[in-house]
Amino acid sequence: MTIEKMLHAVESLSTWIGKAFAWLIVALMLVVCAEVAKRYIFNMPTAWIYDVNNMMYGTLFMMCGAYALAHDAHVRGDFLYGSMPPRRQAALDLVLYIVFFMPGILALTWAGWVYFGDSLAIHETTFNATPLPIYPFKFFIPFAGATVLLQGISEIVRCIVCLKTGRWTERLDDAEEIDVVEQQLSSSTYVDDASRREAIAKTKSIDEAARQRLGQE
């Protein structure tokens, strides 16, 4: 297996996990809507709904971290970074991953596992009229840490490859802003065909120019 295939395999795993847990946002929406109806229409509020919302949102937030890292979706102040050549970007990323990322994620994974173990040992529950088990939710803390750690190691390898070759390894394709813009313009009834084609072409040219700038030495 080549290094590029290995990097893509890790990205595929992170992407699959992120997309699988992203469905929690649908479940969260349904739970919230059901609770609003019960509370304000039927006057039958649920005591445990707040805890369920917190656990579902927390799980969604944590388990999508590796997906965001795999697709370079985390926010960065790139007013300087974006103008650097790939090797300088890779060197900076490598230092930051080793100095800050790895110690933090290792600490999160280890502490999360201990945290989960303590919760499981006492079968920890919530404090309300209808107690809910908390330890299944706390299991996702070390699990999320492990997935982000795996993707982080992949990113470190990507930096090393870039330092050697002078270019970034291509990431797996996924839905991006350019795809959303094109889809919205294509289905819009308020824009004529000529303007629609022109806007899509300009958007693609801007995206391509940005990719070329990041791929230059």
From TrEMBL:
Taxonomic lineage from the root: Bacteria, Pseudomonadati, Pseudomonadota, Betaproteobacteria, Burkholderiales
**Keywords attached to this entry:** Cell inner membrane, Cell membrane, Membrane, Transmembrane, Transmembrane helix, Transport
Quote the function comment for this protein. Answer: Part of the tripartite ATP-independent periplasmic (TRAP) transport system.
Q: Where is the Tripartite ATP-independent periplasmic transporters DctQ component domain?
A: 28-160
Per the annotation, which location comes first and is thus the protein's main one? membrane
Identify the InterPro entries for this entry: DctQ (IPR055348), TRAP_DctQ (IPR007387)
Entry similarity comment: Belongs to the TRAP transporter small permease family.
Which residue ranges does UniProt annotate as crossing the membrane?
21-42, 54-73, 94-116, 139-161
- Species this protein is from: Ramlibacter albus
**Pfam families linked:** DctQ (PF04290)
Any coiled-coil ranges, and where? none
Keyword field contains Transmembrane helix = yes
Q: How would you describe this protein's topology in the membrane? A: Multi-pass membrane protein
Subcellular localization is given as: Cell inner membrane
Example of a GO MF term: transmembrane transporter activity
State the oligomer form and interacting partners.
Answer: The complex comprises the extracytoplasmic solute receptor protein and the two transmembrane proteins.
Name of the protein in question: TRAP transporter small permease protein
Q: What are the annotated GO cellular component locations? A: plasma membrane
